[in-house]
Amino acid sequence: MLGANVGTTLIVQLLSFDIAVVAPAFILIGVLMFRRDTASQTHDLGRVLIGLGLMLMALDNLLDLMRDYEDAPSLRLLLGAISTVPLLDVLLAAGLTWAAHSSVAVVLLVMSLAANGVVPPNAAFALVLGANIGTAINPLLEGVAGNDPAAKRVPLGNLLTRLIGVGVCLLALQPIGRFMVTLQPVDARAVADFHTLFNVVVAVVFLPILGPFGRLLTRMLPSRTAGADPSHPLYLDPAAKETPIVALGGAAREALRLADVLETMLAGARDGLKSGDRRLIAETRRQDDVIDRLNIAIKSYLTSIDPDELGPHDHRRLQEVLGFTMNLEQAGDVVDRYLLPHTSKGLKRGLALPKERQAELISLMDRLITNLRTAASLFMTEDPRAARLLADEKIAFRDAEARATLQHFERLRDSELPTAQASALHLDLLRDMKLINSHIVAAAAYPILERSGELLPSRIARS
Asked: What stretches pass through the bilayer (predicted)?
């Protein structure tokens, strides 16, 4: 925020010159670029130029409007009354900036008033200090989404640095005013320079102590402990949808949370099978509700992003996040509807699996968890070699199912009912795990292999 504050003052410096004459040119060029290509950086740059041109025209019109009132006796009387009390100037400008949601507009207005002698230099500097406070209030009150207090650390830190800087400047306003007038005799330019100098000094002072300052903010606003509602999204910030790359990053982080919940379900199924604890299996099934709610939240968030704001890369990433989320949600459904019920049914009926088969199932469940972790890593790194290795994991599950099918039919021929029932349970669990693994592979490996040309549209051989 310190750097952003300094950057904002450079806009004021630029607008302090009469550049409104180029606003129509910006708009015209922007419209031509915007209409030329709807899926490129040229399209986005055109949007920027249109917005910049409209902003310049609006600020110029605001200043023209205020010039009609600068000589009004009532305004001069009001400003003259408060000009002798710097604190009132600060409060007035802070309120005006908060209402206008723009420190640039207020500082430009103060520059116009100072240039026409409506307010003396020291009062103008105090008004600029107030504008710096007002612009820091808006993010704290309106720009933070969610219930996590930690999200307010940055806007609160920004406001505190401004308040400290304003407090120091108010105490030394007279010598600062004399210095600025000596440095820049033109009142309007002195106001712009003071605005920039104030933010630069605040940045220089606080940069060396950002570490301790950040720890203080962390103590003041600790993170809300997770666990009250694990299905509540943490990274789907509605305000971020205006910036697609940020929105997609948040959705990807939320999708990784979904993968963590699925891993918890797989670990619960493994531990339930190993220990024979049916209560653990029942508790694990409840995790599917968390996956379902996260899946709905992610899909709703992604579909609410304006497609016109997305470039080709953003479109592809959005589809990848959707595919990853939906495949993992389907894997969770298989765990909830088939794997866990089959495990619970076997325990309820007292079907004892031979040690070697139980060991095989537990080993394959561990392999599923490893594959899920690989898929989560692939989702972020997009490594083709790792994608091929993950896709090859389907062979192991396919072979295990084929072996179990042959063994099951052999036991059916032996006509040993308990053995055949245990064999059927073993086969059902293997098929469930094979299907879960297929969804895991499809979630992360297939998009990468398809993009690299290594995934054929069909596995059927063509003559």
From this structure: 12-33, 45-63, 75-96, 103-119, 159-177, 197-217
The model carries a pTM of: 0.53
196, exposed or middle or buried, with CB in 10 Å at 0-12, 13-18, 19+? middle
Angle between helices 340-348 and 278-285 (to 10 degrees): 160
Q: Is 43 exposed, middle or buried (0-12, 13-18, 19+ CB in 10 A)?
A: middle
Tokens 């899920």 sit at which residue?
372
> What distance in Å separates the CA atoms of residue 282 and residue 220, rounded to the nearest whole number?
40
Tell me the residue type at 355.
K
- Confirm if 221 and 206 have CB atoms less than 8 A apart: no
Give, in words, the CATH class of 238-451.
mainly alpha
DSSP calls for 138-196:
HHHHHS--SS-GGGGHHHHHHHHHHHHHHHHHHHTHHHHHHHHHHH--SHHHHHHHHHH
Q: How far is CA 206 from the centre of its chain?
A: 26
Tell me the per-residue pLDDT of 404-426, one tens digit each, with 9 for 90 and over: 777 766 666 665 655 667 777 78
Which pairs from 193-199 meet CB under 8 Å and 24+ separation? 194/125, 194/128, 195/9, 195/12, 195/107, 195/128, 195/131, 195/132, 196/6, 196/9, 196/10, 196/12, 196/13, 198/128, 198/129, 198/132, 198/165, 198/169, 199/2, 199/5, 199/6, 199/8, 199/9, 199/132
> Distance of CA 297 to CAs 286, 333, 390, Å?
18, 17, 28
| pLDDT tens digits, 179-199 | 988 888 777 788 889 999 999
Q: H/E element holding 406?
A: helix 384-414
CA distances from 396 to 13, 387, 444 (A): 66, 15, 18
Q: Dump the DSSP string for 260-278.
A: HHHHHHHHHHHHHHHHT-H
Cα radius of gyration (the chain)? 32
Structure tokens at 132: 């710096």
CA 308 – CA 46 distance, rounded (Å): 13
d(C-alpha 452, C-alpha 454), whole Å: 6
pLDDT band at 294 (very low <50, low <70, confident <90, very high): very high
Distance CA 153, CA 98 (A): 19
Of residues 363, 357, 393, 364, the one with CA closest to residue 378:
393
